[in-house]
Write a structure and sequence with these properties.
Layout (H helix, E strand, L loop, with lengths): L7 E6 L9 E5 L5 E5 L9 E6 L10 E13 L2 E6 L6 E9 L2 E7 L24 E6 L13 E6 L6 E4 L5 E8 L1 H10 L1 H9 L4 E6 L14 H14 L5 E3 L3 H29 L16 H10 L12 H14 L1
Length: 331
């Protein structure tokens, strides 16, 4: 999310003689973010930075370096900085947690591996989430089970997409629309996919996953392959933020959906914290509220928690209220 068009990054000498961080850097984002830093650019190793208030920038700063910038963009809890010069162009200021506390590192592609000290990278679990809850659209036929992953599923009437995850505030932060090859071809031909992308665009993050490889489009006999290929290209140009991903098999499409939704859930946590830190408009601001649970889901939850409910028919209002209260506490 682009917050401002940048002019230059300023590096000044820290006027505090007792500080172990000899430089101050001022990032032209959110009114000017100021950090104490160990060096003027992450050339050989990631630089530890200490965020300070904007008032710590000296009135008559001793400027050491002015770095003209092509862009300065916040993406979640990181700031991507691109310098307008031939060498040492790209760097990133990362807000992370290490050794039990929040830390900030300024890194470059060369020093990227050093920027996550004492943070264990995820292996099987996507984005390090112990157990991910995925909402499955109630109208989805033969849905993914995610049986090989740490996932729990619940059926809901989703406003768009077939699979979705909720953020900490109980809003839908991401969704995935699943397509078989036949469904993809027909929905591109009759325009249904265009309307589906319009709805998906209302979410902070969304994607379309296809259970087939791209080359299969050109093996169609009842529709001109070029028509489908052109239609997909047009949709990607109109909605570049919603990727259409082709996977070779249904199993790979299920795996990709799991990884995408887990990454989106992790991003939403970072985005919420970053929005509080940087201010400005967050990508989560207009996220829609979670759809209400089905009666069957509330009935199942009530029985699991020792609440007596009938086998059929409506549930008492207090049962629904208990479900809402429990999930508010969980969030």
């Amino acid at each position: 999310m682009r917050e401002t068009r940048c002019v230059e990054l300023l590096v000044a000498r820290n006027p505090d003689p007792d500080s172990s961080l000899p430089y101050l850097i001022r990032v032209p984002l959110a009114g000017g973010l100021v950090f104490r830093a160990k060096d003027t650019w992450p050339r050989t190793k990631a630089i530890y930075c200490h965020p300070v208030g904007a008032d710590e920038w000296p009135t008559e700063a001793e400027i050491v370096e002015r770095v003209a910038l092509k862009s300065c963009v916040r993406r979640g809890a990181a700031i991507d900085v691109v310098a307008d010069r031939g060498r040492e162009q790209r760097s990133q200021i990362v807000f992370t947690r290490a050794r039990g506390r929040e830390m900030v590192f300024w890194q470059s592609p060369r020093t990227r591996k050093q920027a996550r000290p004492d943070v264990r990278l995820p292996t099987a679990r996507a984005s390090g989430i112990p157990e991910l809850e995925i909402l499955v659209d109630a109208h989805e036929r033969y849905p993914y089970s995610f049986s090989g992953q740490q996932v729990t599923t619940s059926k809901r009437g989703l406003p768009c997409g077939d699979y979705a995850v909720l953020g900490g505030g109980g809003t839908v932060v991401a969704a995935v629309e699943r397509k078989s090859l036949a469904d993809l071809v027909s929905s591109v031909s009759d325009g249904r996919l265009r309307f589906a992308l319009t709805e998906l665009a209302t979410l902070p993050r969304a994607a379309v996953v296809v259970e087939e490889r791209y080359s299969s489009i050109f093996k169609q006999t009842y529709v001109r392959p070029a028509t489908i290929a052109d239609g997909l290209a047009e949709l990607q140009v109109r909605w570049p933020a919603i990727p259409i991903v082709f996977c070779d098999t249904r199993a790979l499409a299920e795996e990709w959906t799991y990884r995408f939704l887990a990454a989106a859930r992790s991003w939403a946590d970072d985005e919420a914290v970053a929005a509080d830190r940087f201010g400005g408009v967050s990508a989560l601001t207009d996220a829609p509220a979670a759809p209400p649970p089905s009666t069957a889901e509330v009935r199942r939850w009530a029985r699991e928690n020792g609440i007596a409910v009938p086998d059929k028919g409506r549930l008492r209002p207090e049962v629904h209220e208990a479900w809402r209260a429990a999930h508010r506490d969980h969030s």
